[in-house]
Amino acid sequence: MERLLHAKAHGVRVIGSSTLALCHLASGAADAYYQFGLHCWDLAAATVIIREAGGIVMDTSGEPL
């Protein structure tokens, strides 16, 4: 994760909704999403959408959720 955080980025998008941000990830409009302090209910729906789109969802240690 640290390597990804130090990679060159074209920009940072702050949306205010974790589910919407994760849906942007699933659609390809974003390449990554990183957020501390989320709860399982913040991730539940978007995790299914991301997996169905072929993406992976993992915690900060790289373990799948």
Task: Note down, in words, how this protein is organized.
- It contains three helices and no strands.
- It is mainly α.
- The protein has one domain: D-Maltodextrin-Binding Protein, domain 2 (3-Layer(aba) Sandwich).
- The protein is globular, with a radius of gyration of 11 Å.
Relevant terms:
single chain, 65 residues, mainly alpha, D-Maltodextrin-Binding Protein, domain 2, Inositol_monophosphatase-like, metal ion binding, inositol monophosphate 1-phosphatase activity, Inositol monophosphatase 2, metal-binding
SSE order and pairing:
Layout lengths: L1 H4 L12 H10 L12 H13 L13
Summarize the structure.
One of its GO terms (molecular function) is inositol monophosphate 1-phosphatase activity. The protein is mainly alpha-helical and 65 residues long.
Distance between the termini: 15 Å
For the report, how would you describe the main beta sheet?
none
Number of strands: 0
Shape: globular
Order of helices and strands: HHH
Instruction: Give start-end ranges of low-pLDDT stretches.
Output: none
Top-tier CATH class: Alpha Beta
Q: Tell me the number of helical segments per DSSP (H or I, 4 or more residues long).
A: 3
Specify the structural class: mainly alpha
Q: Based on the structure given, which CATH architecture is correct? A: 3-Layer(aba) Sandwich
What integer value in Å does the Rg equal?
11 Å
